[in-house]
Amino acid sequence: MAGGEQRGAPGGPERVALKKEIGLVSACAIIIGNIIGSGIFISPKGVLEHTGSVGLALIIWVLGGGVAALGSLCYAELGVTIPKSGGDYSYVTEIFGGLAGFLLLWSAVLIMYPTSLAVIALTFSNYVLQPVFPNCIPPYNASRILSMVCLLLLTWVNSSSVRWATRIQDIFTAGKLLALALIITVGFIQIFKGNYEELTPSKAFNFWMTPSVGHLALAFLQGSFAFSGWNFLNYVTEELVDPRRNLPRAIFISIPLVTFVYTFTNIAYFTAMSPQELLSSNAVAVTFGEKLLGYFSWVMPVSVALSTFGGINGYLFTSSRLCFSGAREGHLPSLLAMIHVKHCTPIPALLVCCLATLIIMLVGDTYTLINYVSFINYLCYGVTIIGLIVLRWKKPKIFRPIKVNLLIPITYLAFWAFLLIFSLYSEPVVCGVGLIIILTGVPVFFLGVYWRNKPKCVNRLIESMTCWGQKLCFVVYPQGGVAEEEEAPSARSRRLVSETAARK
């Protein structure tokens, strides 16, 4: 639906609500744009160094896409059975209750999304500044400032218009796919010229080391993380046009396409570089461009910058909807569940995501935090898919437009359990810190959510801050639709209080 607001019945009063503006193309762009980040351009060597051969590395890439496809099929069923924005958080809350949902929300808002956004923004700034500082690493302050400018710009775009944000996602996703298509095309030209020695069976499976079970698990973990982001469309279900049709369609189009692109991009790299050259390169696509594109080698660093810019936009768009959903359930301040009266965008939620990322950039060791993020993210996937099986048992009669065979979630969970157990064994400190980050949300839940009878002075402070935030951001609670029909009682009572305060 175009325009600023959704309207009620013809001739009736206007109502403020989230707009269904995400069609099939934009839905595919959200999934593809969030999966394909800078990694495939910069350093796809994590899989190769743990497998010990080109052939096995390519098999792992295909298997990684297969496991992502299994997970996305499960999320397709959950997305059309529980058609609420918020993705994993909404499903876990619905199935396992408020505490489990809050812990997922807490870890996501506190560290998972801000850290991921910070890493992508810093990668963007480093590649934009590289031509200015060709012989050295860009200065720390210059990189941080440019990252913040980029983040603030995209926060403003997302606050101004859902349509602008989705158009940016469409354009930049198309740009990164064109860049990868160029790499794949040049790779095929190399193959037609006979430059495929590293891909022949005798060379491809010539192991320079014998991989152990542990090495294969690490390789598979690297491949799985490269596909992370396949569940992001589920965060914006309520803004999809015909979600019960377009959600599964977008998933079925996007995951096979990304798997194809990842696999053939790696094949193209091996037509120009030996495994040793690839392992020694800090930016594989740039090395590939320097060897084969000649004058046009500048295309590769530009492609990385475009890819990361689109990634920042996608993460902002989806993570703000997670805050919005959490506030609507009563797990976050009610101000975060409000949208702009004209633009119908969740401005308070966007500002919180932006502020959390800026804080991580300024005070956090971003690249250390990302290790904990990977573990928490992977843990959330498995818990959500366990929820699908639990929901089948708890509510067997609920309407399911899509119902996957139970072998699909069981197969996914078998891979998930194997990798999770291996992660706990090989990286106990990282996994332990990740679990501690999650569990810090328990006292916050009982103090902020479970404890209803707070002192009057606390309630008055919350009311005044909510009222001040509404006037500053020019936001109100969405009217009608899913938001009011399904909001939690605690959230509803807080909303009525804030609306009364706003009228005063």
Quick synopsis:
This protein has 504 residues and is mainly alpha-helical.
Q: How do the helices and strands line up, and which of them pair or pack?
A:
Layout: E1 6-7, E2 14-15, H1 24-35, H2 39-42, H3 45-51, H4 54-81, H5 88-96, H6 98-129, H7 140-160, H8 162-192, H9 201-204, H10 213-226, H11 243-272, H12 275-280, H13 284-292, H14 299-328, E3 339-340, H15 347-363, H16 366-394, H17 407-426, H18 428-439, H19 441-450, H20 456-473, E4 475-476, H21 481-486, H22 489-503
Antiparallel strand pairs: 1-2, 3-4
Helix pairs in contact: 1-8, 1-11, 1-14, 3-4, 3-10, 4-10, 4-11, 4-16, 4-17, 5-6, 5-16, 6-7, 6-14, 6-15, 6-16, 7-14, 7-15, 8-11, 8-14, 10-17, 14-15, 16-17, 16-18, 17-18, 20-22
Textual characterization of the structure:
This protein has helices spanning 24-35, 39-42, 45-51, 54-81, 88-96, 98-129, 140-160, 162-192, 201-204, 213-226, 243-272, 275-280, 284-292, 299-328, 347-363, 366-394, 407-426, 428-439, 441-450, 456-473, 481-486, 489-503; strands at residues 6-7, 14-15, 339-340, 475-476. It is mainly alpha-helical and 504 residues long. A two-stranded antiparallel sheet has the order 1-2. Strands 3-4 form a two-stranded antiparallel sheet. The chain starts with 5 loop residues before the first strand and ends with a helix. Residues 1-13, 481-490 and 496-504 have low confidence and may be disordered.
